[in-house]
Amino acid sequence: MIPSVNDPGDRTIGLLAYLYGPGKREEHVDPHLVASFDGMAPDPGRDPNATLKDLQQLLDQPVQALPKHARPAKHVWHTSVRTAPGDRTLSDEEWAEVARRIVAATGIDPGEGQPGCRWAAVRHADDHIHIVATLVCEDGSSPDDFRSGKRAQAEARLIEKELGLHQVAPGDGTAAQRPTSAERHKAERQGRELTAREELRETVRRAVAGATSDEEFFDRLAAAGLLVQKRIAPSGDLLGYKVALPDDRNKDGEPVYYPGARLAPDLSLPRIRERWSATGPGRGNIAVEVPRPSGPGAPAAARRRMAAAAWQAVLVIEQGDDAVASAYIAAAGEVLDALAKTSAAHTRRELREAAWAFERASRSHVRAVRGRDQALRQAARDLVHGGPAFGRGEDGATTAMAIDMLFFLIVTTAHWHARKGHAQQAEAAQRAAEHLRAAYHAAAEHPLAVLRQRGRQLSRPLMQRQSAAIREAIPELAEQILAEPGWPALAATLADAEAAGHDPATLLADAAGRRELGTAESISDVLVWRLRRTAGLPADSAEAPSLTRTSPTPPTAARRGRERPRSGRQ
Fold this sequence. Notes:
The chain is an alpha+beta fold. The protein has helices spanning 12-20, 52-64, 92-105, 148-162, 181-189, 196-208, 214-223, 260-263, 269-275, 298-319, 322-342, 345-361, 374-386, 393-420, 423-456, 460-473, 478-483, 487-499, 504-513, 523-534, 557-563, and strands at residues 2-5, 32-36, 76-82, 117-125, 128-137, 227-232, 238-244, 258-259. The strands form two sheets. A five-stranded antiparallel β-sheet has the order 1-3-5-4-2, with helices on both faces. A three-stranded antiparallel β-sheet has the order 6-7-8.
């Protein structure tokens, strides 16, 4: 159940006309009163003798009783209260009780003999009501409605639990500002999927991903087609910025600008600059820049480096200091944005949805200490500068590899937030993980199918040797792995690794020991990508050395020992 308290207004009659009217698109059905401050207010919806003016005058009476100079300029308080999609339809009596509890909790009409404001609750749809009140109590005093939005949210959490409704995760004040109803209606009229505020937030986030200076950030905003205004101090220092969509105009035909801080708390210029410091706040635009190749092969190479950086981030979030973990989580959001921007069409939508969901998980009250997250931010930068990836060949296969590792990073983030009691962030990270899972299936389908086919063509002795390696390295999971549909792909990968001079059992033990595998959807798939990255094998098996149906000579024990360091760490 979501209460949405609006900024105060100045015309009670105007709001009532909207609530009792047909709506912007004829969506208001049977507008009627479900409750009021005294239970006897006139209902223009169902009483043919009652008018909007009657109800307005009744609500405004305490305001009009004050001397003109003492009347508040903005005296109309308004909130909507909406159930979640899938919730049962509440009766008028249940909505009336909801309204009474909300006005009591917010201080509009606290009850128990305390002075209260006049209010009325109007229902014109199955899933929500509107409560309108006038901000002068019966005795002429002002109500104690400080932080009424937060108080309404807290009461809604209790109501939804008691009524058996969907329980919304409690917030902590770090979420981005929601679009207003006016912004949503404007987007609908213009046929936009997102409001201007949401589109700008997504575009600015992508411009931030991996950026290292003011100049680069603003160049990216301009390249994305945004209008940008900078706030300059008299000294010439850059203090802030605001952005607008070229085709989003107000009634006077002027662009509608949004300051970065109004898009999201971490998109103000000072907060963005914290990401660009190699050692945390206070270093201005100084950043560590690691040269990276561009051109053919760059997208695949960037995805390999991203997978390695994501793995290190998993370890930090699981084991590191909270402030550092928070920085890595924020940097993970940049990686998601960069990957969504540069991946092929068949994965781009799910990756974009994952990035959109994870945005909420990237902020909490645990303030990030920047500096040690530079490897992950550099990975985002590599993705952007590596350019768009094809959905096939090494580009496509390394995309599957990168998404697989990023999935574990996002799941680790969800667990971290859950341990800290960050309910909304944990829920957002879980949603992002589901989108990543869908993107992974799209990216991995072809390369894994090729690997499975190659695995099914292995000679019997070679297949038996890889089975033995599984049983030796991870005996507790061996039978499950050998029964999975993905086992032939893992067998082919082990054979490729062996042909490249690695000991399969050593590689397996190293890969399996880095993180638990029992919760993986397919252990075989996870190990395929870990092994191919760790052993330096092409992600696209078509580029791997061809395997004959005869079994190569297995490495000696001495060779196994010499090759152990080559397995690396994942």
